[in-house]
Predict the 3D structure of the following.
Amino acid sequence: MKVLVALKRVIDYNVKIRVKPDHSDVDLTNVKMAMNPFCEIAVEEAVRLKEAGVATEVVAVTVGPKAAQEQLRTALALGADRAIHVDTSVQTDAPVESLAAAKLLAKVVDAEQPGLTILGKQAIDSDNNQVGQMLAALTGRPQGTFASEVVVDGGTGEERLKVTREIDGGLQTVALPLPAIVTTDLRLNEPRYAKLPDIMKAKKKPLDTQTPDELGVSVSSGLKRIRVEPPAERQGGVKVGSVDELVDKLKNEAQAL
Amino acid sequence: MIDYHAPLRDMQFILDELAGLPDLAALPACEEASPDLVAAILEEAGKFATGVLAPTNRQGDLEGCRLEGERVIVPKGWQAAYDQFRESGWLGLSLPEQYGGQGLPKLVSTPVWEMWFSSNMAFTMLPQLNVGQAEALLIAASEQQKATWLEKIVSGEWAATMNLTEPQAGSDLAATRMRAEPDADGDYRLFGQKIYISYGEHELTPNILHLVLARLPDAPEGVKGLSLFLVPKYRLDADGNPGEQNDVRCISIEHKMGIHGSPTCTLSFGDQGGAVGQLVGEPHQGLKTMFVMMNEARFGVGVQGLALGERAYQAALEHARERVQGRNVVSGEMGLPILHHPDVKRMLVGMRARLLAMRTFLYTAAGWFDLARHHPDAEVADRHRRYVDLLMPVAKGWCTEVGNDLCDEAIQVFGGMGFVEETGVAQLFRDARIITIYEGTTGIQANDLLGRKILRENGETLCELLDDIRACASSVGEDERLAELAEGLDEMLDALAATTDWLLAQGKDQTAALYGGAVPLLHLLGTVCGGWQLARAAQAAQRQRDAGEGDADHLADVIELARFYMASIAPEAAAHARAVRDGGRVLARFPEGGL
């Protein structure tokens, strides 16, 4: 079974986010970028499926600017066999919206016909949590989102996928026919560190570039960003003298009760 | 706990703009080291240092090592960290591909090892020993020995040690007594005791290979009678696997001031008939091999100074941004973090300036090692070899002294909270204290610099270096905006040039006075080299700014750091010069009875 794993280049989670002075966007000038942490989990899961003999090939794909090839190389160093870069910089410098990304990925899914497609449940830059679900709808494939466990069982032809999902009330396990779409939650696995020899080998693994035009998809934006604000600075707390005072403040000042 | 984040931006800037990575990668022997690959390696190494090695550092310090019978128990986290380190293939980074390494240049391995040392120095001494031993075997071992041992050492499957010191033979290896007697099987039997053997015994690997300096029965007296032997903890069986235990035992471990996680062992060889070993290289040529490795070894310890200083700086900076104390001297405002105090800021800016100076110096020197080894033009290769020879005592001596200063200053930034162990910064200070001692004390580095590297060749390479730095100063001075940097550098050069002339003019009767000023001379040359590298850094930063490349804020910081160095650290050069010329003279005549 072929596994396609989609990943996104985002601002590194260690970086303190700065907003541009004109509030048009987050300032990404000379900021350290990295693979989205949920996507790292997706890559790890795909590589584990290959190590377990379930997957025969792992293909990493990203939609983004030229520099996103760095993250594809990371995926190759972690164990992906080859990579596909959908280079959006030919059409736009702006971030690609969820629907455009999903449409592009759907084209890649059509061409590659993976048994399983794994994505991070959301990217830590825009936090949309949309691409996996949209991709499922566009490709007509069943989806298992927010996975904390993924099990592929059954033999050939009858392969079924069990996905344990983290939902508000606890855990829900769904059974899906293959081919399917899975998005990863935080507790699915702990991603490994790349090994030095694999980092060296990653350089020589195949990386194909495609353009949105070749795939027949326009990445033009349907949304308008109005203003980006940093979160309000946290205010200092107050000490209360008694439980009564606390209840009073919660009721009257915070109006939380 | 103190976090560690690899200073990737500074590292990458120095590699690309100052230490010559792009040029090096253009050489046929180094073509693997393409900029994108190097960036990927640094990125992953940084993650590993932060995520795996740094979190075990404090626990290793608290737990330390203990001896149970003949077993040495290392800190609990070591096994998992070592297995992960070994499996990730980091050990072979710069070692030959033929034996399972990646064969990358020293310029690439240097920042990576810096990260290992920053994140956990006591742990990192273990894999570092493998690299040192592999280099020794590559120089001296027979093809058969290389085939037997090297892959295991390069992969880290087996651990390695270096056995030089004996109770009466510390800095002076001529006093070595360990005996090696040929036996009937064509091997040798070793008898004697070695002390201060880092990782001399542990159970992290299925075997340990001891490289031992000893005397053959017909050996001449002194350093010309020392031979090298390879003595495995477990002798190999017919299939090449660890078999019968050899006659080597750990009889004690030291209680040390720092690097608690690294067991420092006393090993006893031959209590039960002799430890079986193989001769490595020619008889009586052991020290020669050690000398070939000496520059590498010294360089490695210099990097430790940089690495510990970096970790101390990161800790101090984080503390200064969080700790609220005192009234702002300008606005009178209360409730601000201590970074607003001009003196706290002075310490941190001074630390950052010296780190940038040391890092640029050491990475540039790492590039010299590579050019000496790989440059097709023999003249270019030779010049860089001579620079390495001249400046390795400075890289070791100066960077370890400054590294200690930075760890000391970090405690000062922490104040009382630095003096208590809980904050972790005291560990760095304790761990750093060994680096000015082992691999040749600062005094020995200074003597080597003065005697072997300057006086013996009548200051030839030093004068060549002075011309190089002078040319750099005049090129920097062409840009008006950097003129004050060129002036600062020129002033230091004047002090160094006058000192050099004076040194070379002294007769034999002044030897005691000259050696009395050797350490100040080392500091003088170190301070000049730091200023030289920062002037280069500022020039490169200005060039990038003018071209609209890079991170403008970072580049502006680099230029200001160079200015701060010239304003507040460079003036020490004149004081060092005075201490060389006058201090040594007074010292020579001061009566020992007056002490």
User: Anything to note?
Assistant: Chain B has a mean pLDDT of 96. Chain B touches chain A through 29 residues (CB under 8 Å).
